[in-house]
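Provenance

Sequences were taken from public entries as deposited. Structures were produced by running a predictor on each sequence independently, with no templates supplied. The record for Ketoreductase domain-containing protein from Darwinula stevensoni is shown for reference.
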Amino acid sequence: MGLGWWLVGLICFITIVGIPWGKACFVIGQFCFFPFGKEAISRRDLTEKTDVGTGFWGSVGWWLAIGHVISALALFITIIGIPFGIQHLKFAKIALFPIGQTIVDKEVASESFMTQSLQGMVFAVTGAGGGIGRALALGLAKEGCSLAISDRDEVGLAQTVDLLKNQYPQTKVLSQGLDVTDEAGQQAWLARILAEYNQVDGVINNAGIALMGNFDEVEKEKFDKVVAVNLTAPINITRLFLPELKKRPWAAICNISSLFGLIAPVGNAAYAVAKFGLRGFNEVLRQELMPTNVKVISVHPGGIKTNIALNAEAASNYTEQQRVKLATEFGKALVTTPEKAASIIIEGIKEGKPKVIVGTDAKLADKGCLLALMDRDTDGLLTTQQMILAQQSSAVVLIDVFDITDETSQKLWLDHVIQKFGFVDALINNAGIGLFGQFADVSREQFEKVIAINLQAPIELTRLFLPMLKTRPWALVCNVSSLYGLIPPFAQSAYAVSKFGLRGFTEVLRQELMPTKVSVCCVHPGGVKTAIAGKAEFASKVAKHDMQQMVQASDKMLLSTPESAAKAIIAGIEKQKSRLIVGLDAKAMDFLSRLLPVTMLT
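Predicted structure for Ketoreductase domain-containing protein:
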């Protein structure tokens, strides 16, 4: 912790004190780079008969040298030191608060997850009469736990007990029929657990029910029942068990929320209230219990092959046939087995993860899984689609092969997106091309082609998509500029015009849309290992040999992988940053462009 504070203190001192002092040196020294500066010095030297090498010029040289050294030192420590310091501050920063000091003292502030053995622990599981609850009971028995299981379905609960006895005959099992909304029943269950085991190390609130129907169709009694079972009961059971859990050297509270605690499902208002509410409760409780030995795990399963849909109630205006039909249709989306879900949940408990996403569908919903992709490269687009589906089989990917500069194609693409999804939440303008050659050597057609793809197309697509984006509860326009939208590159005038222009458009648009729900983000990637240089056009006067040298020189400056760049961009979008600098090279040049005159960077 001390190292983190020391390093950040040093960084702050050099950055706050050193950089301005270094900049002051430049204010004195930089004008010697310009003709008028030299003339002023010459006139002064002639008047004062001062030798340029040893008089004022010499002083300026020393000031300039000092400025260089301090600024370089500050830059080095800022770029290299801050990430290291921040890593230490993950431990140190919360020491500013009394609760944080306790966390640090207990050495639980680390973000790394250490696996905890569950051997010999006692776990209480609700809803263990089938589905995920039954699979959790069997999985915990395999880990060597003693069990206290409950369910209102006593027949299903007895079947779970039989399975445990057959597969894990050495496991101690205490079962009890329980309506989780009955507080007296909750207290009796805890009393039996303590009488039997004299301890409890973990509680898994898994019991849950579903309800079909729009909010204005569902009766109050049915709505309240879902909230009571899925939200109030886990909260009350947590409150009841918590004092006992705090007595243990390690303990866990695991509350099963849902995919529908991440995204809102139409026709499931009560279920969403309960599962979003449980998610919020988990996240607050986890922070409150950080100074203690009790871990809090929020679980979000996607479509799990259980009977929750078939057993769901429906609004009274639904016929039984309609209810069964809806449940059957919903059942087609259930792709993960209870056993697989339980295995993931138990691993999350052992690692003390604050959030466990179960199933590809839930993971995609957690990040966003509806994709509409467009490119002029048919083969490349198909390959991208295949790679996404190979990794995430439940992803929904719409692809269209269009010329991005064609206004008719732009409108067709938007129509396809709306027909497929019914809405669009984000537009990422990423397509771009390069062009090598000095301005005088580049043809007008080549120059305008770069402007059309890199600048005009993003502007027109933004204009086209913006009315739809404004109707969404949250929306995004993300325009990918470049490092060369921060500093001008030699012999790439068209590219610089397009990327500086896109930067200006994005920054103005962000201000204009501030009163709306549309966020605007401008991305400036540095050297990313893509094929843009290899596919770039060249001025007609550039020789083939020179073309190869330009491409090879450009490739040497590509430091970041597309995957790391995409990860950084997505993280920035999630944090709703208005400006993203991607890659150390871009960050360094952005820093220097703020500190130094542009003439020193080109």
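Residues 122-363 form a domain with the Rossmann fold fold (CATH 3.40.50.720).
DSSP finds 19 helices and 17 strands in the chain.
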